[in-house]
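not sure who needs this but someone in the group chat was asking about XRE family transcriptional regulator from Sphingobium agri so here u go. i didnt clean anything up, its just raw.
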Amino acid sequence: MFVIDPELRFPQCRLVLTHDQLLNELRAQIAAKKFSQKRLADHLSIAPARVTEILKGGRRIQSQEMPRLAQWLGLSDESEAQRQFVPEGAMPVAAVPLLGEVPGGNWREAIRNTHHFIQAPEPNLPRFAYALKVVGDSMDKIVKDGATIIVDPEDQDLFDKWLYVVRNGEGEVTFKQYREKPARLVPCSANPDHKVIPITDRDYEIVGRVVLITMRPDQAALD
């Protein structure tokens, strides 16, 4: 687990954005009509046709274009001096898309919002990793309401005692611990109202494994 203090750690670290994260945010903002392709092309000093190729996946965003594009999309508020100076031993961070909320209590429909990113102190997270906010108290022995979990959707192999995000046949999503013999989802909670969920009598889909938990000190499950 990691405790993140954005005021102390992040201003000293380089923001690491992947090509796919920038491309996904670019497509989302273009779809939302926040700006025209022509305006973006002028900002990047490229032909408008190149922007079209980027959006269609026919051209990669060039390395020299990535910082300017991140600034244009509002994903970076670093000054030029901050980008050029990284203190020795500073921990790089990765920008991870925050897709919404996952219930830590009763089943409820997951809320998705692809316009927000968080900074995680792990520059080498899985390529499709994304973040979800925990809502509820059914996992409060591990984290409290409001903490953030980062999910690897490509890691769906079940192992005893690991943490997963799971979706049922109605499309509702929850965050729980998986236990074997019998296969079940276990609430790690001090609240007795939360019950073990058997997963043998219904259709369930593993959304992904929880690979990182980030939180403020008041979101940690401390006695």
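also The mean pLDDT is 76. if thats useful
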